[in-house]
Amino acid sequence: MRILVCCTHAVSHVFPTVSLAWALRAAGHEVAYAAAQDGLIARSAGFPVVDVLPHLTMAELFGKFAQERPDLMREIEKGIPDLKGAVPGFAYLCSQLTDGTVAAAEAFRPDLILHSEMNGAALIAAAKLGVPAVEQGFGFADATGIPELLAEHMADAADRHGVTGLPERRATIEVTPPSMAAGSDGWTMRCVPYNGGGVLPEWLTRRPERPRIGVTFGTVSSLTNGLGPLQQVIEAAPEFDAEFVCALTEAEIEGLGTLPDNVRTASWLPLNALLDTCTAALHHGGAASTLTALHTGLPQVALPGGGYRSIYANAMARRGVGLVSPSSGLDTALIGRLLTDRSLYEAADEVRAEIAAMPSPAELVPRLVDLAGA
After folding, report:
1. 125-137 per-position pLDDT tens digit
2. What is the edge-to-edge ordering of all strands in the sheet holding 243-248?
3. Residue 354, SS3?
4. How far apart are CA 365 and CA 30, in angstroms?
5. Residues 129 and 211 in one domain
6. In contact, 165 and 151? CB cutoff 8 Å
């Protein structure tokens, strides 16, 4: 079987698909990716990748977005409370990817398209080729009616390719732990974090001498929110007897200046490897960061800022595995609770056990084969 994995522009939309892509390849199937901008990092996982929007960087894409749809950019910066609110922005971005995604699919001729959440370009490609489309969602929110709404917003892109509806065969894979699910009827699958590879620094192989908090703000958050939230964490760090390890890009590290003694930076460190050594996590509320911390059994503090990250942050808070800082800035008291509130650790352990009991990516492969052959 031939599977084309279609992802959007972000690292956080590619990484969650890699474990299933590996399972498919290990079962003898041929897998390739179609992605753009930062999503081209799929090549580091060992897969061939087609660039569906060449000659346009992530910053240029968001600049184009802000210029052509300032109304949507303002909504994203303000924060989106549910998936329906995220559809117009995703429709705009995916419309830019549609022609390249369809061309990649026509060249590869897949038997099935696996795609990241709300990738309307992948739905158009699957419908045009008459193959099943399987979305690997992040979960945490009710996605009922989202594909239909996305199709409405992308009607012009679909018209360019003679597509008049959604693919006839569709399925959804949910990696949300059962106690945090929003009622979806998709196929459940264990989240097996993939955060890239790399040579671990020597200090990461030693047991920390005091509590360690892993800090990440993802790869897209800084484009919409800047480094303000990270600076707040760094300014608060000296108040606590803990080590703060910030996983950042080289450019972000260069912009930080002098750091407190208990703050360490690391460039492109696999998040799962870092969190394995941590007591807790502090992040921007992104789905991949949230799920990696849940898989590791860590309590969390989220500063969701813009986008639709508040969906994941609020789900984490409802389950009792973490805390959400207000949009006005970092509430430093939450860091104290993160280090001392045992109820957070107990809930995180419960969720880790739930995740371990879910079907592995390898167990989903036969279902995908059956769907493609239906």
Report:
1. 999 999 999 999 8
2. 263-267, 243-248, 212-216, 280-283, 300-302, 322-324
3. helix
4. 13
5. no
6. yes
Q: Which residue range forms the structural domain that includes residue 104?
A: 2-190+358-372
- According to DSSP, residue 94 is labeled H
Residues 167 and 228 in one domain: no
Asked whether residue 27 falls in the same domain as residue 126, the answer is: yes
Q: Distance between CA 70 and CA 50 in Å, rounded?
A: 29
Helix (H, G, I), strand (E, B) or coil at 23: helix
Confidence at 327, pLDDT banded by 50, 70, 90: low
Assess if residue 133 is contained within a domain: yes
Query: Is residue 331 pLDDT above 80, yes or no?
Result: yes
- 71 lies in some domain: yes
Q: Which amino acid is at 68?
A: E
pLDDT at 82: 82
**Shared-domain flag, residues 77 and 221:** no
In angstroms and rounded to an integer, the radius of gyration of the C-alpha atoms of the chain is: 20
Average confidence (pLDDT) over 354-364: 97
Amino acid 123 reads L
Whether 10 and 157 share a structural domain: yes
- Classified as helix, coil or strand, 170 is strand
Q: Could you give the 3-state DSSP secondary structure of residue 3?
A: strand
Q: What is the CATH number of the domain that holds 217?
A: 3.40.50.2000
Q: Do residues 70 and 141 both lie within one domain?
A: yes
Instruction: Place 198 in a pLDDT band, splitting at 50, 70 and 90.
Output: confident
236 contacts 339 by C-beta, under 8 angstroms:
no
Mean pLDDT of the chain: 91
Q: Do residues 182 and 236 share a domain?
A: no
d(Cα 90, Cα 228) in Å, to the nearest integer?
Answer: 25
For the stretch 254-296, pLDDT in tens is 778 789 999 999 887 899 999 999 999 999 888 889 999 999 9
- Residue 245 domain flag: yes
Look at the chain and report how many structural domains it folds into.
2
